[in-house]
Amino acid sequence: MSESTIAAISTPQGSGGISIVRMSGGSSFDIIKRIFKPFNKRELDRIKDNRMMRYGHIEKDGRVYDEVMVNFMKGPNTYTREDICEINCHGSMISVKDILNLLLDEGCDLAEPGEFTKRAFLNGRIDLSQAEAVLDIINSTNELSQKQGLKQLSGLLREKIEDIRDIQLEALSRIEYSINFTEDGQDLPLDDIISYVERANDEIKKLLSTANKGKLIKDGIETTIIGKPNVGKSSLLNVLLNENRAIVTDIPGTTRDSITEYINLGNLTLKINDTAGIRETEDKVEKIGVERSRELAEDADLVIAIFDRSRDFDQEDKIILDIIENKNAIIILNKLDLDSKIKKEDLGNNFKVIETSMISRDGIDKLEEAIFEIFDTKDLNKESLIITNLRHERLLNLAKEKIENALKDIKSQVPIDCVEVDLRSAYDDLGLIIGETVSDEIMDKVFREFCVGK
């Protein structure tokens, strides 16, 4: 445990009903006892007041800082496994900052980003994957991402990684026995070792197969709206957002650069890019925007291609169809209130076609239904554990590569002690996921993403 006692504001900045200033460390009780004056005059007691809310004032040298509720929690059964004290004060930034500054004057150190959770990890309460899950829950943008964060926080990923490492240990122990306790030419049969290594590899593959789903859950569905100028792309974005985020005019080329917004659609989050209209143009700035539109469409998980049904189908429309070929795409025929000059046959049979009006919002419900058909949340909910963290995915891929190299070497009759190097390294890679072996550099990188106070 750390010798210092840290303090930070644990609630978001700004005015509110209540704010919380938190301390963690061995001096927490002594500090709060010096500055807290209970309303009923009974002094704080380390044992009797453990996990009890006490009402009173924060005072020092005759100054009353605020009327508060104080909750002292005795370690080790706390978030950090250290003594913790939380001061619930009024949600005024003046009160909150004054109380924090008083705690610093009384001997606390200002907590670094994520330091409370870092102490929980260092003191053995949670592993590194669980620490990262705390951040995922805080940053979750939809119900699915929150559920996956809670599953990871419960230790589900740690248990799975430990199971795979146990399988690897079975293989490694047999290799160690062959190296150290058998005579030349009397190694243990390789079939048992191969069986354990293949089992470990299969389990890693199962986890990795969920990574693409994890990206959609955590980062949102990368969605790009494309079309010719003035067909209703920005209007669609505004309808989905229920606000005038994008400029809408009758002048073609108004949107010259992409606009990105996030919206929640049921259990899904869409990261929507409204792009510059795709057309032939001599304007240098607009040309850059058109090229950017193509790039965003190429990288998107979902493309929504909008066509103006009141205009004739032309060469530029054909270019848009070429862009969305072999993509998850939905076609919108916009301006339902006007006579149609585009036939559905012109658009082929590969995509869902929806007719809409951005003025009356007709067809928007069908667009949402079409998105749910492509990205079935029921299928996502079936997965008990989904890899949502890029660091975890990278380490799993490294372990998989080394295990497959080891399998290849075993079957090629490479000396068993050479095989052990790859297997041992893969074992360590999996340990990095849960923090069994972790450097200060990795820890700093993980906890740097946290807010101060968590």
Précis, in short:
The chain is an alpha/beta fold.
Description of the molecule:
There is one protein chain. The protein has 16 helices and 13 strands. Residues about 245-255 have low confidence and may be disordered. The protein has three domains: about 5-110, Gyrase A, domain 2 (2-Layer Sandwich); about 130-210 and about 385-445, Four Helix Bundle (Hemerythrin (Met), subunit A); about 215-380, 3-Layer(aba) Sandwich (Rossmann fold), CATH 3.40.50. The radius of gyration is 29 Å and the shape is flat. The strands form two sheets. The protein has a seven-stranded mixed beta sheet. The two termini are about 15 Å apart. The chain is α/β, with parallel strands linked by helices.
Index terms:
454 residues; alpha/beta; Gyrase A, domain 2; Four Helix Bundle (Hemerythrin (Met), subunit A); Rossmann fold; 7-stranded mixed beta sheet; 16 helices; potassium; P-loop_NTPase; magnesium; tRNA modification GTPase MnmE; cytoplasm
Helices and strands in order:
Elements: E1 6-9, E2 16-24, H1 28-35, E3 36-38, E4 53-60, E5 63-73, E6 84-91, H2 93-105, E7 109-110, H3 115-122, H4 128-139, H5 143-153, H6 156-181, H7 190-208, H8 211-219, E8 221-227, H9 233-241, E9 259-265, E10 268-274, H10 284-299, E11 302-308, H11 315-324, E12 329-334, E13 352-355, H12 364-374, H13 377-382, H14 390-411, H15 416-434, H16 440-447
Parallel strand pairs: 1-7, 8-10, 8-11, 11-12, 12-13
Antiparallel strand pairs: 1-2, 2-6, 3-4, 4-5, 5-6, 9-10
Helix pairs in contact: 3-4, 4-5, 6-7, 6-15, 7-14, 14-15
